[in-house]
Amino acid sequence: MLLVFDIGNTNIVLGAYDGEELLQHWRVSTDRQKTGDEYGILINNLFTYGGLSIKDISAVIISSVVPPLVVPLVKMCQRYFNVEPLVVGPGIKTGIFIKYENPREVGADRIVNAVAAHHKYSGPLIIVDFGTATTFCAVSGNGDYLGGAIAPGIGISTEALFQRAAKLPRIELVKPKNVICRNTVTSMQSGIIFGFVGQVDGIVNRMKEEIGQDVYVIATGGLANLIAQETTVINAVEHFLTLEGLRIIYDLNKQ
Question: CA 230, CA 214: separation in Å to the nearest integer?
Fold first, then answer.
């Protein structure tokens, strides 16, 4: 069994694969204060609840944009699973060429998404990942990672509005019936959701013009469905894109 970790700033998404089959997947809060032992106990409990055993884990791959958590999770894998995990970073085979000015600056999650999207859809592609930040990544038809754009994510933008505006409340992120709303909560929902829809449409269309070809657009991340339903540019939603990319990268490097 292969265990894959996608460590983000807000959540850790992990999944257990048997070959190409995703057996179980979980999403937990990212906690920089947790030790490797605490994560080990947490994962053991998740496996038990899911009807799996950590004794069946034969390999682990980790993608992280939170450097302080890499060492605790590596130590956890060594102690609880008795395996040396593969960490996505410089020197790892990905099968794609990164055309960034400094390839080391590209977040591991963006590369992993590009690998999975190119493997499934070929290209050219644009990948929109709705995480702590909203990232837009362009991939050429032959698998080159061309670059992209980074914007504040929906969650942190909403939280900033609540914290900096004294009379505005925290709200649930659901689509209102109308754009023109008649109370504060739905007005905020309208501005946030339709505002991000406009952002996605605008950036993706500009990226398409620069690529100059017919481009397939994929959305992923926790809020992908909410925004994708309203945009005119997203062709597909892939909830497990990062997990699938980690599995593919592991297969490329397992020798």
Answer: 21
